[in-house]
Amino acid sequence: MKANKAQLDSALKAPAATRFFLFYGPDEAGSRALAKRIGAVMGADAERIDIAGTELKADPARLADEAAAISLFGGARYIIVEPAGEESLAAVEALAEAATAGNPVALVAGALRPTSKLLKLALAEKGAIAFASYAPEGRDADRLVAEMAKAEGLDARPDVARRIADGAGGNRALMAQEIAKLALYLDAAPDRPKPLDHDAIDAVGVGSESGDLGRMVDSVMDGDAATLRAEFNRLASEGIEGIPLVRALLRRTSLLARLRAEVEKGQAPGAVMASQGKAIFWKEKDRVAGQLVRWRSDLLAKATSRLVEAERLAKASGSPGSVAVDEELFAICRQAARLR
């Protein structure tokens, strides 16, 4: 069945009561995090069985056998199938029809089409849980960063959490990577918590030379096509493309739209910027101030519409994905160049 977050949280407290979990959607890191929660509930001594979907295609009976098997060590066990796709269908059907199971099974898939037979099976099976993972955004992203930081022994203020979320562009895996790096830098741990501030991010985090989406965002909004092309290449080499880029731009256009509304009511741009205090990171203020002067509300609305459409295309099955995103960002960049 298709589960909401409350239903999923309840099921994950006793995962053995569910025949199988299907975690799918564009946020694969989020799906992996959900599968990891099963392991946490089962305990550190539980035996984890990892199976690839291609292995199940060759041996469809294996999944049901593993789900019913007793651990060699006599303890708990659970099964993770990743990546899971249509090649796993026969094995999952056998699992659903099995008389007994007992060991939790989680299938981690990427984005699945509505016509996917695997997805249809999970939605129709009463003993199954299907849950779609999407990249966190807005306050949800900020809250997630704060929670992840706390788990690493870091106390992140709201403005610091927002900066990390912005820099990661909603990419959960990148958030986790940056937070782990910051915890190591500050020698933080749950039993020796440390405050996380902008100085640490400047040194090694998403605001440093090697990591963030800030240069990409500014190159788009400032109309710098050459830098944008270089940023696409750099980010792609780090596995960052598509939706995270859109989310980072959307946050900037949303910020500018809110500030521009005040300017068009008669306030001076400088006064509007000053009223934001620490809500805008000090290193970004000059860039944002320049963009605030150039970008009118109607143009920001058009840019936001293009970004929303780009995200829709990136999520659509059979779409050009990140290619479509790159094209839309270049289009916005060209508009910005005309405003200079």
**What is the domain tally?**
2
What is the CA-atom radius of gyration, in angstroms? 23 Å
The averaged pLDDT comes out at: 89
By CATH, the topology of the largest domain is Zinc Finger, Delta Prime, domain 3
GO biological process, one term: DNA-templated DNA replication
Catalytic activity: DNA(n) + a 2'-deoxyribonucleoside 5'-triphosphate = DNA(n+1) + diphosphate
GO cellular component, one term: DNA polymerase III complex
Keywords: DNA replication, DNA-directed DNA polymerase, Nucleotidyltransferase, Transferase
Give a structural overview.
One of its GO terms (biological process) is DNA-templated DNA replication. Keywords: DNA replication, DNA-directed DNA polymerase, Nucleotidyltransferase, Transferase. The chain is of the alpha/beta class. It has two domains: 5-132, Rossmann fold (3-Layer(aba) Sandwich), CATH 3.40.50.300; 139-339, Zinc Finger, Delta Prime, domain 3 (Up-down Bundle). Helix content is 58%, strand content 9%. The chain has 17 helices and seven strands. The protein has helices at residues 5-13, 28-42, 53-58, 62-68, 89-97, 117-124, 138-151, 158-168, 172-186, 198-204, 214-222, 225-237, 243-263, 269-274, 285-294, 297-315, 322-339; strands at residues 20-24, 47-51, 77-81, 105-108, 128-132, 154-156, 194-196. Strands 2-3-4-1-5 form a five-stranded parallel sheet, sandwiched between helices. Strands 6-7 form a two-stranded parallel ribbon. The termini are far apart. The relative contact order is 0.10. The model is unreliable at 207-211 (pLDDT under 50).
